[in-house]
């Protein structure tokens, strides 16, 4: 595509940039996905009118609330297939989290990287734990998920949980984990879909990430269509479980869980973690294991596409 889009309005440019990003993953996003991730503050109506104008100008194509760059109309069929797959994976994840949310110290669980599923994909989770118990919670979560055949390991990948990104409530600002000029991280954040939220931790989490506001000003909260309800029985159960496993067993549990897991992690991740690498972070506040982190690759492809459109 050899279009010069430099004369578009700032809103129109923001829309095209968002669509270019989704195009990297063969996605044709809907209006809400575009608006939530775009960098210009405007109403849904303004975004809709701008999209219609871009379609009339033969810059974009649109079909049933899905939008793509002109010439990429094959993505409309792929988009329908993606949504069928996304529904299936989300329902499987929700059933699993309905059990795992009873694990002490878990405060927040969300689907992550859920804008680029493939049939053989695992299910990425982003988890926030209670402060001071990150290692203990991960230990309990890993073994419970493994026992229930929910955890990804070895060749067991499809529809299994990838437990590779956990933080404690002490490290809710994620900006230290961003790469320089990291467009992927914004889309990753706004696309998080919570399955479990304890004590309104989602509001605290969003508030802690002030870097997001100028990049995605229309984002005011996570989409929660599949959020599990914390019924009275669950709340009482978690109070009892947390008291036993955190108040009574928490400190020795944290010490032993850290010692056990560190011994294994040093064999697998030491070469990356010790060099302050954002792909692998091992600390008492953040456990992140993304050795195959492709953010730099996506960043370069994204900006090359923008350059081709004269939109940098």
Please provide a written account of the structure.
With 312 residues, the protein is α+β, with helices and mostly antiparallel strands. The protein has 2 domains: 10-77 and 298-308, Orthogonal Bundle (Arc Repressor Mutant, subunit A), CATH 1.10.10; 88-294, no CATH class. It is 46% helix and 12% strand. Strands 3, 4, 5, 6, 7, 8 and 9 form a 7-stranded mixed β-sheet that branches.
Cα-to-Cα separation, first versus last residue: 15 Å
H/E element sequence: HHHEEHEEHEEHEHHHEEH
Shape descriptor reads elongated
**Number of continuous helical runs:** 10
User: Helix share of residues?
Assistant: 40-55%
Rg, please? 21 Å
Concise overview:
This protein is an alpha+beta fold and 312 residues long. 46% of the residues lie in helices and 12% in strands. α5 (134-147) crosses α9.
């Amino acid at each position: 595509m050899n279009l010069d889009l430099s004369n578009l309005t700032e809103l129109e440019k923001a829309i095209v940039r968002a669509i270019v990003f989704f195009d990297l993953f063969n996605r044709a996003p809907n209006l809400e996905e575009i608006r939530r991730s775009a960098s210009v503050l405007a109403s849904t109506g303004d975004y809709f009118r701008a999209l219609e104008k871009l379609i009339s100008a033969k810059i974009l194509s649109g079909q049933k609330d899905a939008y793509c760059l002109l010439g990429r109309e094959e993505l409309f069929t792929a988009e329908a297939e993606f949504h069928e797959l996304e529904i299936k994976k989300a329902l499987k994840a929700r059933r699993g989290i309905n059990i795992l949310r009873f694990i002490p110290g878990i405060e927040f669980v969300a689907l992550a990287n859920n804008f680029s599923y493939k049939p053989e994909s695992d299910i990425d989770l982003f988890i926030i734990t209670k402060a001071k118990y990150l290692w203990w919670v991960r230990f309990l979560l890993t073994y419970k998920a493994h026992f229930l055949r929910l955890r990804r390991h070895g060749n067991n990948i499809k529809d299994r949980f990838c437990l590779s990104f956990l933080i404690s409530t002490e490290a809710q600002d994620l900006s230290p984990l961003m790469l320089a000029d990291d467009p992927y991280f914004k889309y990753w954040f706004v696309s998080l879909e919570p399955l479990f939220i304890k004590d309104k931790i989602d509001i605290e989490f969003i508030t802690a990430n002030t870097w997001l506001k100028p990049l995605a000003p229309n984002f005011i909260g996570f989409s929660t269509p599949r959020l599990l309800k914390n019924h009275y029985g669950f709340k009482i159960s978690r109070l009892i479980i947390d008291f036993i496993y955190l108040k009574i067993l928490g400190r020795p549990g944290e010490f032993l869980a850290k010692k056990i897991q560190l011994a294994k992690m040093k064999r697998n991740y030491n070469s990356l973690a010790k060099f302050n690498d954002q792909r692998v972070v091992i600390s008492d506040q953040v456990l992140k294991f993304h050795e195959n982190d492709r953010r730099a690759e996506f960043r370069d492809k994204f900006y090359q596409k923008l350059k081709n459109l004269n939109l940098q």
